[in-house]
Amino acid sequence: MPPAIVGSDNHADVERALVVNCATVVSGSVPTDTIVQKHCSLHIRGNLIGSLTIEEGANVLVDGSVEGKIVNRGGRLVVHHKGLTEGIFMLGPAADEADAVLKINLSAVAFNWATLAKNTDADCAAVLECNAYGCGIDPVADALAKSGCRTFFVTNLAEARRVRAAAPNSIIYVFHGLHAGAAPLFAKLNAQPVINSAIELAEWDAFVNANGWPGGCALNVDTGENRLGLTMAEAVQLSGRVRFLNHGITLLMSSLASAENARDPQSERQVAWFDELRRLYRGIPASLAGASAILLNRKSHFDLVRADSALFGINPTPGSANPMLPVVELHARIVHVRDMTPGQSFIDAEPKRRRLAMVSVGQADGFPRSWHPKTTLHAIVGGHRCPVTAPSSLDLLAIDVTDLPDARAAWSGEMATLIGSTITIDEVAEATRSTGREVLTALGGRFHRIYYAT
Hints:
- The chain contains eleven helices and 26 strands.
- It has three domains: about 5-80, no CATH class; about 120-310, TIM Barrel (Alpha-Beta Barrel); about 330-454, Lyase, Ornithine Decarboxylase, Chain A, domain 1, CATH 2.40.37.
- It has helices spanning about 105-115, 130-135, 135-145, 155-165, 185-190, 200-210, 230-240, 265-280, 290-295, 425-430, 435-440; strands spanning about 5, 20, 25, 35, 40-45, 50-55, 60, 70, 75-80, 85-90, 100-105, 125, 150-155, 170-175, 190-195, 215-220, 250-255, 285, 305, 330-340, 355-360, 380, 385, 395-400, 415-420, 450-454.
């Protein structure tokens, strides 16, 4: 059946609430709330301004921007980001030499940043620490800069150099601060250290005074996360310097210890302490909130928020529907298929014959080995969810394909999906006693990598 057409060639906007119960194409923008029912599809040739609810198995394609709230109950959303050049480029070993493919959707990264930026009145920075959580700083920084992001946070100077090349006009803060003798390198890159101790601040001041360097620094205060940063007492003691014209502090920052729970007493105390500290540093922009707090704790927004691992599809609101688009897909090749009988290897307890597909990914690729006894990890083979039978070995993962309706889907050479729109990073993390960040940052360099914008 051909799709229903709504609107006309002049891109007339839809004027009433839209409930999609068949394959539908809208030639224009949709300003109203939209519900796409189970296993239906919607293609919007324009912008989606109202809220969007995607039921299980539904598919939505938007050629413009998405402005309203998104509730995804198991469907798929693709947004063609017009600010990015359509294209594709590749890194790592050639596709025909590698046994696994990692695909990274730069349009989805840009969409996720824009979604977080729309949920605050503060400026929105991007956190690209740990090589953009393993996804690759260079293409990600370029995509975000083209999408309007102007401030970036990275781990070290090597990452700062890569962001500077991709986003020449950006503001760059370096989390790991100033190590001895590194000040000239910050000046050369026009990057700003995140100062975590009084010793670092003294060395930075000495360099700035001796060289007349106008670049500033961020002051990081530990308000309860118990990691890097000045103590509250040190921060109060240093606050007097803001009375001087050239104090050199461009940002006052801290981090929440439990950002996923806005009503957590510790989070409330941290916000209150940071607010009081901000009063002492009057006139200096302040930053406390990461992605979770952007969505859950408006009191923590202050002047600058920091979009972190949620940029890459990790759910910033655990326990609720994920408002982020999936970014990463991992596909691995089946290298061997064998039948196993009861009493063999790791399926001793099985009462019947099983058919296993050995997939070419494992610990050497950073795929998790730990295993949650009450949660089953799955992979997609031939469009069907198949259970993974045991933790990965060094470079193999065993998938039970016994119940596939078509055995040819699991022939040697076919690809299995280990991470994608229906097998999320968070699902892999839960099944392997890990976190989304750990899963993402561990993915190794043996993959054929494909970066693309839609």
